[in-house]
Specification:
The complex is a heterodimer of chains A (610) and B (291). With 610 residues, chain A is of the alpha+beta class. Chain A is built from 12 helices and 33 strands. The longest helix of chain A is centred in the middle third of the chain and has 21 residues, at 276-296. Chain B has 12 helices and no strands. Classes of the chains: A alpha+beta (610), B mainly alpha (291).
Amino acid sequence: MQRKLCLVILSLLVLAGAGVNPLAAAPAPPREVASYAMEVTYQPEEKRITGSATIRYTNVTETPIPDLVFHLYLNAFRDEESVFMQETGRVHRGYGFDPAESGYIEVRSLTLEDGTELVQSFDFADDTLMRAALPEAVRPGETLTVEVVFEARLPRVFARTGWADNGDFVMAGQWFPKLGVWEGEAGWNAYVFHANNEFYADFGTYEVEVTLPEDWVMGATGAKVAQRSPAGGMVTHVYRAEHVIDFAWSASPHYREHREALGDVALRILYYPSGERLLSRVRDATVGAFDLYETWYGPYGQGLYPQLTVLLVPADAGGAGGMEYPQLFTVGELEGQMLPGCVRLLEVVTVHELGHQWFQSVVATNEVEDPWLDEGFTDYSTRRAMDTLYRGEVSGCFGWSFTYLDMQRMMYKNTPHTPMAGRAWELRHYTVATYSKPVVALTTLERVVGPEALLTFFRTYYARYAFRHPDTADARAVMEETLGFEAAGWFFEQLVYGAGSLDASVAELAGTEGRVTRSGEVCIPSEVAWQFRGTAPNRADWDCDDPELTFTGSEPLVRIQINPERQIPLDLNLANNGQLSGPDTGVWLGVVVRAFDLFQSLFLTGGGLW
Amino acid sequence: MVGPARFDSVELPARRIAAYVARALRRPRPLAVLYAITAVPSLLFALLLAWPLLELSRYPLLRQALERRSLGDLIEVFSRLEGAPSAWPLIALLGGLLVSLLLLVVRVYLQGGTLLTYAVPQPLTRREFHAGCRRWFGSFFLLNLLGSCVILLPLGLVVVGWGLASYGGGAVGLLLLLFGALIGGLIILVIEMARAAAVVRDDRNVGHALVAAGRGLWQRPHYFLGLAALGVLLQVGLYGLARLVGGLSIPAWFLSLILLQLVALARLLVRLGRWAGEVGIYAEFMKEEEL
């Protein structure tokens, strides 16, 4: 017994010495809860999907399930009365709804394995949620099989899903009756489709057969496992995806294809001829960021996903661009076509949507209740990947750099008083709360605790919650474990839950005296550097116990700088973080000289004519 | 007045043309005047534009923004600080545009005296210089106006080509850009040659000047195109040099000032040398004709 104990201890020591945390939770095995086998046909002329789905749902809780609640997302596009339309004003991300090209989804029948027909009811004040009572509750551990026959018509694409290009393009997202998430005593976690919310579903296996005209090229979640050619000029594409929370697909007769291998993962990029010149940019961004994310966080799909499909959607289908699905994401041509090559919005979107393969497809947080978790973590990853791949630049035109962090800081500073946590439709400033503030806050955290330490947090979080549904409290627990209670405390209390802001400034610098102060509700431990004339520079920590610091000496104070390494990008005003005792004439004259040259060039324009 | 020059009968040795080109340096009045009329207003407007930044330079972020060429930091400095510049930069830029237009007219005025300086065997007195300016002002203004109208088309091609090339037009955009630039360059060259021919032949008729320019380009293109090509190469080199100087650190202002002004002088000198060379080509051919 003692010998066995010694061997265990020795093994732990060896593992720890090898850099493997023997106490870190091993990835949980994927748990299949909601699996779908679907056979559908898409008729491009009518933009109609007809078919059936056999759904197997396992009750993995301790509470019996008395009914089924389905998402019917496409009904948000039926008319202008839906909650989604009321909240968006019929415009989503700059694209407008065309009432003449609406969409819908109808469940024609809903039957159990024994043929019992279930009665549908719509008691959620919006047709995007449907309830069906069960004759008998599904007991804990039991699996229910239900057959759904449905019909859907896709809208003209403006909010992620629909058709475009005169019907020659289709992006089918949230296109089938999808069960909510049963959470035991809390019941079904399923909300009507609000403007700002995205999606939440259980993991399962999808086996989907889509019948399309024979000249159409299809891309989808998962890998293609078969193809059949029934009569009538149609082809049935058979796809299978395991351990996923959703299934999306797209098709067009105009799609071209690029294939390559990313290790064991098959990369497939579908694009229109008009997108050919953007292919290399999308491909390079995908490959570059893929390597980074695997290095930083862990294997794509935890090694269980064989395929990654990227759709470069045409300009006419811009509303479908910039969206993530399991093993598939979309990027719009517009970002590349309309902007010069020195603007890298196309790369930003590519890198961002790829990041969701880690934070959403595998770590499947509730995008309705905790939108900041997947969007914020992904957008922080975007910033970090852009730093590595493109010097952080969203724009590098005319030799001037504008970084992704700059962009997100600008947005954050406009409305800083918002928490990050909160339900999607309840956040007053959704974009700032879920994208901009998390980028700035996590970057601040990175600079305070160190980039490698923050990666340890993300790696642990990804490994522990792969194929699961963590929430904000779970993320905090991992942060406390990996970064410590102090860092996790100020990050979550002040920034995730809190709506405060921070502005540290040099309040006074005159003669031999100086003073720095903090305003705002947020405090993050900082550093201050200062220098008196004729002496070496000094540095000191500035903790949260002191709302201000003063400096007094016998010689004139030359400079004060708060956070000389720019550790706190969360600070609303970086300009007042530093001050000199007088104007920097060297800098000023440098500006004069360059302006002098600029005007001379202007006046000499006209060449030999004038 | 002598008849139209014919260029197809003789070959001029390069040293004879070079002697005229050298006059651009040996007779520095036009260079000095042109430099002064661009440098003085340029410096005034630069000071006007930069004046509000003097106080802002107390904030180290401004230096960081300029040295790192960070637009984000620059926006941060200008948008968040009290006392940030308000109307001054706009006034400076608009004023610069207006003065630029005025200087166009002043430079046309100076072109006659400039070309005469290079055409005559002996240096001109100040009175003779200005007499030359007055004599040719009307004809040159008309000539330049004509050239400016005609050049709009190739300029349009350059803009369209640049747009196409920037937004994925690739080879087509590049070809359009180059073609437009080439045609535009030829138009400028023809106008320059017309001015040189007019002064050498002492003929203020704009039509005659253009015919002489066309004939020169047709019969002996290698002289004029060679001179123009050399000028373009030198200007490209000087532009590259200016860009390099722009990469010096902001506080190294004195070195930047010296180098950039030397480059500005050199750019003017290249242009004037080209004009002197064109005058020389016409003058030497006229001599050969008379012989």
